[in-house]
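Reviewer 2 asked us to include a model.

Predict the structure of this chain.
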Amino acid sequence: MLPRSIASLACTALLATASFAQTSVMKMGKASGKPLASPVAYTSTKFDSKSVSIKYNSPSMHGRKIMGDLVPYDRVWRTGANEATTLVTEVNLSIGNLAVPAGTYTVYTLPTAGTWQLIINKQTGQWGTVYNDAMDLGRVPMQGHTLAAPQEKMTISFEKTKAKSAELHVKWENTDQQVTVTAQ
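Predicted model (structure tokens):
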């Protein structure tokens, strides 16, 4: 058994370490008590009672030029903010012409002034700006449309959902990019 002063010192050191770790997390904006500038958002759908979901952080325009500026063309984008955008599917999918087995993936995009690419990446759990192209499951072209009015917050959504298919949309500013998702 340790003398009381050594035990007290050990407890103090342990509390100081925990406090430092908590402060570090708070400085990253994860547990500061303040809402994140780009809050966590979710979208999901079901095919034959099996879930397909996407977790992302939703940034806002805040008067900034987005496409081609804040989100540069011809560079891989994390498709959101903060942590990498995560796709979890309980069912095998076809996203465009890409076969995506049931599992967990990271979603990136390659925005261009023309046709965007949706990137499904096998690396998971990383910060959004950590991208390893060697881990790509594949890339598929998206179809672009111009929104009638600017959209302040970036969203990812499943739309026109049917029993075995849906459209996956990424919308922000004046841009709406979509690709068809089909259960296999």
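The first strand starts at residue 40 and ends at 47. DSSP finds one helix and ten strands in the chain. We have added this to the supplementary material.
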